[in-house]
Amino acid sequence: TLGWALPSAALAARLPLLWTAFAALLAGGTAAVVHTLFTTTTQQNVPPDVRARSNSFGALGAFVLGPVGLALAGPGADHSGTSAVRGFGAPWQLAAAGAVLAV
C-alpha cells in the first residue's frame, strides 16, 4: 500500500526515532484498513470454492520478490551507500503501488 512509503521516507530523511515510529504506526493503520477492505471484497466477489486458491496466488504474487529485494539491498548499499538505498525505498514503493493502481 502507499502508506508503507512513510517509514521508508522517514528513514531516508534520517528523522528522529519517534517520528520514524509514528510513520510506521500510521503505515500499519493504513495497512489494516486496506486488508479489511480487500478481505471484504474477496469474500463478496470470489466464490467460496476457489477463494483459498485465489488468496494463495495473491500471497505468492505479493511476497515472491521480497527475498530478491533483500538480497540486492546489501550489495547495493556496498556499491552506492546506505543513504542511496534508503532514499530509493520510498519512491520505489510509490511507483510499485502506482503501477498496480494503474492496471
What's the shape? globular
Radius of gyration: 16 Å
In terms of quaternary structure, the protein is single chain
Mean pLDDT: 92
Query: Total strand count, please?
Result: 0
Instruction: Give helix % range.
Output: over 70%
Secondary-structure-derived class: mainly alpha
Number of domains: 1
Low-confidence region ranges: none
Distance between the termini: 15 Å
**In this structure, how is the largest beta sheet organized?**
none
H and E order = HHHHH
Q: What's the helix count?
A: 5
How much of the sequence lies in strands comes to under 5%
Sum this structure up briefly.
By secondary structure, the protein is an all-alpha fold.
Describe the fold and architecture.
There is one protein chain. With 103 residues, this protein is mostly helical. Helix content is 86%, strand content 0%.
